[in-house]
Amino acid sequence: MAETMNQPAVLLVLHDVAPATWADYQPFVAAVDALGPVPMTWLVVPDFHRRNALDAHPAFRRLLAERVARGDELALHGYFHDDQEPRPSNPRDWFMRRVYTHEGEFYHLSRESALARLRTGIDVFQRYDWPLHGFVAPAWLMSDGTRQALRELPLSYTSDPQHLYRLPDFTAINAPGLVWSARSAWRRGLSKLVCEQREQRWRQAPVIRLGLHPVDMRHRFSRDYWLKTLERLLMEGRVPMTKIDWLAQQRSQLERAA
Q: What is the mean pLDDT of residues 156-174?
């Protein structure tokens, strides 16, 4: 750890991890494993779209346990990863919940609803003896009620596209992230241009997050981009870390400087 304390880091984060999305991720994960020890953070959905409950997939659970044993991190990523709350009541909510995404599960939840769903997700991790430190809301969308609920739970962090937040006080830490919108060819082309520009802007950043989604893995253009970007950042000297390990390193540095 001492050797890497002052080196810039890269955090490889797999979103929407579930039995239904493993086929998308499997070739990419194998390619990353072939590069050497590259720890990843897996954002796990306990019951993806209400038809992929982890309880019904023991082989997939064993896979996740094996990844933890390798040094990877599992984080809670919503519970259902869909939005079945009452219809939007104003134009902004309609845009966020019907245009930007249909999967903003925690965008409209009250404190009580968010707390109940989060506790159910935490119970899943505890049932399978998976260490749990972080929660990431689907599409990074959180209601005020969700934020209130997170202050009451034994979690260490949450995040949005450009920050990590220490819980329970939501202390913001700059952690710029690259992410694609890969649903169509023009979106993939634009995403590549934007991410290349941002990577250049962030060359001196202490950390860069790579936020991958299953749809990225379904197109060679986007899949190759992520693998080549990871390889380049590693060649440039960035240390691959999980989110929680990078946060622990940052805390250690602050304590040493105090």
A: 96
Q: What is the DSSP letter of 12?
A: E
How far apart, in whole angstroms, are the C-alpha atoms of residue 152 and residue 226? 36
Share the mean pLDDT of the chain. 90
Give me the domain span that covers residue 42.
9-257
| Gap between the Cα atoms of 33 and 41, Å rounded | 14
Confidence (pTM): 0.91
Instruction: List the end-to-end C-alpha distance of the chain, in Å, as a whole number.
Output: 19
| 74/51 Cα distance (integer angstroms) | 20
Quick check: helix, strand or coil at residue 76? strand
Which residues, 6+ apart, have CB-to-CB distance to 185 below 8 Å?
none
What span, in angstroms and rounded, lies between the C-alpha atoms of 73 and 148?
A: 25
Q: Give the chain's length.
A: 258
If one counts the domains in the chain, the total is 1
